[in-house]
């Protein structure tokens, strides 16, 4: 088993007044040669956006983009003629493929907190696509819920992307132990603790800490305090 620990206080920081962001991997003006990516996982940004503010129209290409609002809501508009509002409890996926432009704004008065995740696709030049789903009815206490899976092995309840990647969300009470089986020995799993306290891979994770683990078939989450967890399983090469 190989692992890398990313304490929350080692993330990159950016504060523009309307946007307060933390970067798990090198992004924008934050560069750390030891934090370029984790396997096919390229970006995990933890963004706080002031009410009425947001990201103007900007381009993406050849990237699978997943947005998970943790608090509040954002309005999405893109060059594929999609306009949508994504709220806490929902997950959005966008395959940028050959190229897409979009904007994201917090149209509410309250602050928006969202996770933005970029994963390299299996191949470039794919047709752009968009989807979103409300998982609030599916998420059950003390269970990992699959919210994103590969198109080639799609869970009918999950959104899909063009990569052999699996995203799970879970909320757990103290004292729970959760075993997670990886889908392939060539995969790794990046565990991001959204809230709480849990021991994973021999490390005690607290709020916004993360650990990447690979060269193993299984990991165990030992929940020490009520926790909310994001697991991102990706190919390592």
UniProtKB/TrEMBL annotation:
Its cofactor is Fe cation. InterPro entries: Pirin, Pirin_N_dom, Quercetinase_C, RmlC-like_jellyroll, RmlC_Cupin_sf. SUPFAM superfamilies: RmlC-like cupins (SSF51182). Residues 147-234 form the Quercetin 2,3-dioxygenase C-terminal cupin domain. Pfam families: Pirin (PF02678), Pirin_C_2 (PF17954). Fe cation binds at residues 58, 60, 102, 104. The keyword Plastid does not apply. Binds 1 Fe cation per subunit. One of its GO terms (molecular function) is metal ion binding. The keyword Metal-binding applies. Keywords: Iron, Metal-binding. Residues 13-119 form the Pirin N-terminal domain. Belongs to the pirin family. This is Pirin family protein. It comes from Christiangramia oceanisediminis.
